[in-house]
Design goal:
alpha/beta, 4-stranded mixed sheet, 9 helices, 11% strand
Length: 245
């Protein structure tokens, strides 16, 4: 094991954090109002008694963007984790389906599926991850039947006080970052450089976001506002009617 220097992590973050901001901005620029309206539950927003078109547009846009950003940043953190582990344990991006990282430590081959947070999936998604672990183990053991393989679900933030899940372990937050780096304080050290150039990047994003909300509000009002009121029947028909595929 080689101890990683925090400066190395900081330099990696500063060099690559722009990729997250660029992907976030691109996701915003590619949004279409119709696509969002088709994916969100109109009954929920009616139940919340939303009266202003701009309020409704902002809520559905924010909900969609939040989900997108979680995915984008989760993918970015996965790459950071692989970079750190490569420096410390000579780990590598796995070629096995559903496995993000492989590395050897104390005569154990670890296969790691990296997720953003602890509540990342439903029961079917968790079963899919377990299937991926089993397939990866089978593939790896074709080359070495005696290979000791341990499967890990690594989560970049949060906690899980019962890490032993039977056929895999779940490490979250501090425990995950320490597991891949050998540094118990790494989870604290990586937060500072993440703010690099954040203000100017967010200023650019916020300007585009404001334009988008204004554009979507105008478009929504043209299609779904009648005599100054949101036409919920028209909106629900657009979202759910078989005749409006």
């Amino acid at each position: 094991m080689v101890s990683i220097k925090i400066d190395e992590v900081g330099e990696y973050v500063k060099k690559n954090i722009g990729n997250f901001h660029d992907a976030r901005l691109e996701s915003l620029q590619n949004l279409k109002l119709n696509d969002i309206l088709k994916r969100k539950n109109p009954y929920l927003f009616k139940a919340k008694n939303i009266l202003l078109a701009q309020d409704l547009v902002k809520l559905i846009t924010d909900a969609y963007l939040s989900s997108q950003e979680e995915t984008i940043f989760g993918n970015w953190l996965e790459k950071l984790a692989v970079f750190i582990n490569e420096k410390v344990y000579k780990g590598w991006k796995s070629s096995s389906q559903g496995i993000d990282l492989e590395f050897n430590k104390e005569k154990i081959r670890y296969i790691v599926a990296i997720k953003s947070g602890p509540n990342w999936g439903n029961s079917s998604q968790i079963r899919k991850m377990q299937d991926d672990f089993l397939k990866a183990k089978k593939t790896l053991r074709t080359g070495d039947s005696k290979l000791n393989i341990v499967a890990i679900n690594g989560c970049c933030y949060g906690k899980d006080h019962k890490p032993d899940k039977g056929n895999y372990y779940k490490y979250c937050g501090q425990k995950f970052w320490e597991f891949i780096s050998g540094n118990a304080d790494l989870y604290l050290k990586i937060i500072k450089p993440l703010g690099y150039a954040a203000k100017e990047k967010n200023d650019e994003f916020n300007e585009e976001y404001a334009q988008l909300i204004n554009q979507f509000t105008q478009e929504f009002s043209t299609k779904f506002v009648t005599k100054g009121k949101i036409n919920w029947d028209s909106l629900v028909q657009f979202n759910s009617s078989e005749s409006r595929l």
